[in-house]
Amino acid sequence: MAEFTLKIDGMHCGSCVKRVSQALATTPGIVVSEVRVGAARVSSDQEPPPLGLAIAAIAKAGYTAYLESQTGDAASS
Questions:
Q1: From 40's CA, which of 4, 20, 28, 77 has a CA 20 to 30 Å away?
Q2: Are 39 and 32 contacting, i.e. CB atoms less than 8 angstroms apart?
Q3: What is the pLDDT along the chain (77 residues), one digit of tens a residue?
Q4: Contact 10, 64 (CB under 8 A)
Q5: How many CA within 13 A on the CB side of residue 67?
Q6: pTM for the full predicted model
Q7: What is the DSSP string of 17-55?
Q8: Is residue 58 a contact partner of residue 68, using CB atoms and an 8 Å limit?
Q9: Sign of CA dihedral 52, 28, 63, 72
Q10: How far apart, in whole angstroms, are the C-alpha atoms of residue 46 and residue 60?
């Protein structure tokens, strides 16, 4: 399973964290590990991982996200 860190701009409080957590939780193929102000750690065992869907879900929630780092299977492929 590959793990990814998404940098998220515009998050400032617990309500923001909850909104992003809910958006990611409903994204098919994404498992949420941790969401904190400014970032989210997620994982996926799909190939290719649906990071575009996750970033789009975050954008729909009102924030800007981009891939900061990845580890695991996707990093070595």
A1: 77
A2: no
A3: 899 999 999 999 999 999 999 999 999 999 999 999 999 999 999 989 999 999 999 999 999 999 999 987 655 54
A4: yes
A5: 15
A6: 0.88
A7: HHHHHHHHHTSTT-EEEEEETTEEEEEE-SSS--HHHHH
A8: no
A9: negative
A10: 22
